[in-house]
Design brief:
about 160 residues; mainly alpha; two-stranded antiparallel ribbon
């Protein structure tokens, strides 16, 4: 910051040495620019001072937080936590639901799907009756199974004809 003050002082001295007078338009402009630069240097110096103070406070808070974390989590093992939540995530079964109204696909936990009769689409807010969806899915699964069986039979027949 001292460097800014030195540069402004140099420019002020240079203007004085060149005989820049405030009597001319150009002289007033140059002197005004130098005054504004001096004000900028003051503002930057004050910001730098505040920044240093804030940096000290943040550093102190960080140290205090680190001590607190050490006290609270001293027996904590990251791997145990990760293993617990990995196992829990594996246990969750999600059911894919496609809204018949807006065709947006979303997921429900299996428990929620089994325990609810109707849900609200998160996209269009229309009520979806799960019983109706089950019937549609049952027909789709049956159709898909039937198509798969037909393809298997055709491939077996083609294999025997060769």
């Amino acid at each position: 910051m001292e460097n800014l003050y030195e540069k402004v002082a140099y420019l002020r001295g240079l203007a004085d040495g060149l005989g820049v007078s405030e009597e001319s338009k150009e002289g007033r402009l140059i002197r005004s620019i130098i005054d504004v630069l001096d004000e900028f240097a003051d503002a930057i110096n004050e910001l730098d001072t505040r920044y240093c103070e804030l940096e000290d406070v943040v550093e102190s808070l960080d140290e205090d937080l680190e001590k607190l974390e050490d006290e609270v989590y001293e027996d904590y093992d990251d791997e145990e936590y990760d293993d617990y939540y990995d196992e829990e995530d594996e246990d969750e079964d999600l059911i894919e639901i496609t809204c018949p109204n807006c065709k947006v696909t979303f997921y429900l936990e299996e428990d929620e799907y089994l325990n609810e009769d109707e849900i609200e689409c998160p996209n269009c807010n229309e009520v979806i009756y799960l019983d109706e969806l089950e019937e549609e899915y049952d027909h789709e699964e049956y159709d898909q199974d039937y198509e798969d069986d037909e393809k298997d039979e055709e491939s077996e027949e083609n294999g025997q004809n060769k």
